[in-house]
Sequence to fold (186 residues):
Amino acid sequence: MVVLSDIDIKKYLSSGALLIKDHLPECISMASVDLHLSSQFKMYKYNDLTHIDTKEGVKDHHMHSFLIDEGNSIVIHPGELVLGSTKEYVKLPYDLVGRLDGRSSLARLGLVIHSTAGSIDPGFEGNITLEIVNIAKVPIKLWPGSRICRITFDKLSTPTSTPYDKRPDSKYLKSVGPGASKISQD
Fold:
């Protein structure tokens, strides 16, 4: 696989093969595109949960969904998991894999942007859910609209024969905002 340069990213965008809706041209860097934090979040209602059973999954009533008004922030406490999403809506062609990376500046504060789900499949379409965790010992304040992560693109040797949008088990296709786990659908 080859990582796309800024020149190739711009070619994919201008051809329409790659869609990053609402991206800012100045957010395209040498080999990536910076993405921004949306104002939509989900958190577990920890007081209502004794455990999470991966066979049963998480019910909607076990999560609190909320919006942060423009100009306001969200505080992530130590050890807390908050599901957020990118402001940008992304659609990948069948010959690209996206790789999500948190920003180094945020990691140095103790903020993890994605726990393990950093790969975006060819054919994926939607807002990218972020598993935001504070591993520091002090709360961290985040502002919707700020740069939160970046996406790089690996080119496949040939387009995949089973893109995400054609698989019957694609649980997160066309997701809008942060998506809760659908592990029980495995």
